[in-house]
Structures
1.
Amino acid sequence: MELRQLRHLVAVVEFKSFTGAAAELHMSQPALSQSIARLEGELGCQLLNRNRRSPGAGLTPTVAGQTLLTDAIGILEAVDRAVERTKRVSDGDRAKVVVGFASATPTRYIKEAMRLDDLAVEIVPKHFGWGEAWPRLKGGEIDMGFVLSPPGEDFGLVDLIPIDHFQRFLALPDDHDLATKPFLTVQDLGGLPLIDPGYEDLPELRAFWLLEPWPTGVARGPIVTTPSVAIEETLVSVASGIGAWVTSSIVAEQFPRAHISYVPLRGVDPVQVSLARLPEPPAPHAASVYKHLAAVLNAPQ
């Protein structure tokens, strides 16, 4: 069994046809069909249902095929991450460790990470956008990163070392009736439009930023979808009156803006900031940085 055969299988299942998969893989359809046939021959089992009686259904994996497919995806992702890490250390004497951060990452955390550059590694800071932490970790683009999540939630995707907790705030136009309140509860937000936080692939995180579970008896306002992909753009939407935005005290501190008021939310869990990495064994230099940085950030200030 070869890696290219696993890539062929994944593509065929994704496109549900040899034709679409062959085009994606830049190879001929007969060559792709032969590759899958050889793989089935090596394993001694059928991997795909050809659905000749229902051609519209396309190719689907058999039970054996689905079993191999699940492992194949994990194997290929691990190989791609290994290639990415190897490329990063191939152009210098020091190993590179990429630490991801977002605009909402506390500045102190990034500074502490950069101070580790005098170790036997080179720290490479990598900014990621809204909701990009998880795919960048899985894709091997970063070795570790600072992420925001509900307290105690790791989504089963990463290893987390909690660092601190921060109160959630509501960003409002400064001329809104609620903007002058010393604090707000969810009960105060009846009918208020909230800006959609995204995170469709992480429903627990999406629910957290939408203040769910929403209390009974309080009218739920509309969830407003905007094209915003960055904090600055979202704040423009808030100032324009499109909707209020549930955020954190980190953003309130690091992004003070004219025409925006940040009001503390009471009665809701804080947001947890953690240092995250994939649960698979990391490269030794990355493991050392992960452990050292977590210890520094968790030390009493």
2.
Amino acid sequence: MLRDLPLDYWLGFGAVLLSTILSGIWFVWLGLKRKRYLKLLKSLRSSIASDLHDEVGAALSSVSFYSEAALRHLENGNTEKTAEILRKMGTQSRSTIESMSDIVWMINPGNDSFQKLLDRIENFGHELFGSKGVTFMFYKDEAVPQLELELAIRKNLFLICKEALHNSAKYSQAKTVQLLMSLKSGRLDIVITDDGQGFNQDEVKAGNGLASMRVRAQQLGTKLLISSKTGMGTTLSFAIKYPQKW
């Protein structure tokens, strides 16, 4: 009976069967992709929650410590010391507000492009060094702004660059600071250099800022490389692969 059916029937049946199989494969693929996306999203939310917790916790601890110290000095009539501590409280509070502003900016879907992140880094550099009379230059390959990176990668990259620029402005006494981003063999190379006083890495103790940058570099699957000698300036570099964002 089946062999007597016309060819058109079998062609139609084959087309329907093939369509069904392809649809099944498509839905399985979408399910796996969604599952992986949700896993990445959960991990990212945990990371952001941890950042906010650490930032707010550290700020509250500092404010509590400073306020108690200020109160003691005020009770002893030492107004000069009280004013100094209050200034430190103000600096700590502004720093915390800035850090939280960065996190909120990062998770805003309107800032999802890498170009906007590059603009934010460049604006930060010009504002930071411009007030100190230091020349800041930002060079990047033409294809760099078109990269599509996951939010977690963009966040860590931005915070490393920001901390490195901040340290240079605070300690290097440089006249010129350069930030270079280039693409080489499937990776993004980031190099920050200054012509400042440099330092002896064996003599200078690594602070929390450097430790934080190294942790973020590890989260990016890379290492933070620092080259510096007294009187020879400082170079900080790291390289990351650039997988497609979800």
